[in-house]
Write a structure and sequence with these properties.
By secondary structure, the protein is of the alpha/beta class. About 35% of the residues lie in helices and about 30% in strands.
Length: about 290
């Protein structure tokens, strides 16, 4: 898989103007503890890109390296054509970031937190901030300490989107949001994307990735295990196989030659068989399970 991701980089580097995120052979360790290892992939401009993996896979570490919050020991990261180590301030002016946990000064009012977020960029986004607050039903007069997790998450959405950034980096954005607000949130994401904003969505919610993302990278224990379009993943050569033998059901995932599968099934003396395309959830499990 690493070869696939490096080929992807070589194909895209010819036209840097079309690249929003370029990560090349990046390694970040915490002493003896794993972070990310030799990570490489490219996100084209205008994409809604899914960064998929369970908690602890290295998703947040990757994002913090992208934003200059963590120093990585090896490799290179370029965001919107700029070096993530040397041009962090310039990058942050063009990026909207929504962390997995929304932390603000508890004594501040919501409206002041929102204003502070754009004043740091020397911008005035009052009109857009009010519009997003209205869509999300955000009470601008409340103090942060009075808000639930879901309402703090809404404030984080406003802070990330109000300046209409070139790149949106969203780390587990829907955790804490009720289903209705999740729908509103993705309506805003699609709206920003239609304007030309690239969206980088880190998630472990497979239904979100399937519904909204064009391309996806799957990360496991800090390493890239798959990089492809969601469409290609869903029509991959992998098949979910169910067989019935002596009244017992057995299920497995198969990715080899179809003739070999049929020959193998014939030797198993099965009573019945069902072969179908796997769901994204089953594909994810396939890429995460240990090799036999």
């Amino acid at each position: 898989m690493m070869m696939e991701s490096k080929n992807n980089i070589r194909e895209c580097r010819g036209n840097e103007a079309d690249i929003a995120i370029e990560i090349r052979d990046v390694t970040k360790t915490y002493g003896k503890h794993r972070g990310i290892s030799h990570l490489s992939f490219v996100v084209p401009k205008g994409d809604i890109f899914g960064f998929l993996g369970p908690n602890g896979a290295g998703k947040s570490t990757t994002i913090r390296c992208m934003l200059g919050m963590l120093h990585f020991q090896k490799g290179e990261i370029r965001i919107l054509g700029m070096d993530a180590k040397k041009q962090t301030r310039e990058i942050l002016r063009k990026v909207g970031y929504m962390p997995s946990e929304a932390m603000f000064y508890p004594s501040m009012k919501v409206k002041d937190v929102i204003r502070l977020a754009v004043e740091a960029r020397k911008m005035n986004c009052d009109s857009e901030a009010r519009r997003i607050c209205d869509l999300l039903d955000v009470d601008r007069e409340k103090r942060i300490s009075e808000l639930s997790l879901g309402n703090r998450k809404k404030v984080s959405i406003v802070c990330a989107m109000q300046h209409q950034p070139e790149l949106l980096i969203l780390d587990e954005p829907t955790s804490g949001l009720d289903p209705l607000m999740q729908e509103v949130f993705f309506k805003l994401v699609l709206e920003q994307n239609a304007r030309g904003t690239t969206c980088f969505l880190s998630s472990h919610v497979l239904s979100e990735v399937k519904r909204y993302c064009k391309n996806v990278a799957i990360i496991k224990e800090g390493e890239l295990v798959k990089l492809d379009s969601v469409e290609n993943l869903l029509r991959s050569g992998i098949r979910q196989v169910k067989v019935w033998q002596g009244g017992q059901e057995r299920q497995f995932t198969y990715s080899g030659n179809a003739r070999e599968l049929i020959r193998e099934l014939d030797t198993m003396q099965v009573d019945d068989v069902l072969i179908e395309e796997p769901s994204l959830e089953e594909l994810f499990i396939h890429y995460y399970q240990e090799e036999a």
